[in-house]
Amino acid sequence: MEINRYLDHAVLKPDTTIDEARKQIQSGIDYKVYSVCVRPCDIEMAKEMCEGTDTKVSVVLSFPHGCGHKNVKAFEAAEYCRLGVAEIDMVANYGLIRSGAYKEVVEDIEAVVKEAHQQNVLVKVILETTELTDEEITLGVKASIEGGADFVKTSTGFASGGASEEAVSLMLKLSSGKIKVKPSGGIRDRKRAELFVNMGVDRLGTGASSVEAICDDKTGTGSGY
Q1: Topology given in CATH for the domain delimited by 3-215
Q2: In what order do the strands lie in the sheet containing 7-11?
Q3: Whether 89 is catalytic
Q4: Residue 224: pLDDT band with limits 50, 70, 90
Q5: 2 has pLDDT over 80
Q6: Active-site option among 42, 89, 108, 150
Q7: β-bridge partners, 180
């Protein structure tokens, strides 16, 4: 299994310096991960570094809380597409999800998808599943499908926890082949990474400190994302 090709290598901690971000992005490139998932401020650097490599650039949007206005999210998406990202990982407004506001959640997602898909950029919707009940996760997945997103994702890695087997299993069941599933948060070694791949997911979100442990099958020592 080429586990590296499932990985979105996250370089997202807010206190990361430019030099640290550059080193972490380079690590992802060296391991030929599918993408480096960066902060918006690092898009240009990541694009330049990834040019001509096997690694794409993805970016987070309305991260990590997701409560920006849908029009602002749409503006963000348009700008990130202009800068040349391949994928956008947007945080859904999970306060709206917890409110049962299905229509508003769909509109939140659609606003980003509309801008991204015009530029052939994929959209992943982060639900923050540790903050949601099964019923609320169900609403989030269904809204992501109706909103036209390409992936539904468990976590930012900045809330109370990361991907659980129970949440991923539910999301896979609900996806019905209409949307792909990406566990993220707390995936720090190859065993756990392969567990989720064998469940049927299409991508994995991992912290920059865990790529070596996962790809070289070492014990993970990373924390956070």
Answers
A1: TIM Barrel (3.20.20)
A2: 180-182, 151-153, 122-126, 87-91, 56-61, 35-38, 7-11, 204-207
A3: yes
A4: very low
A5: yes
A6: 89
A7: 151
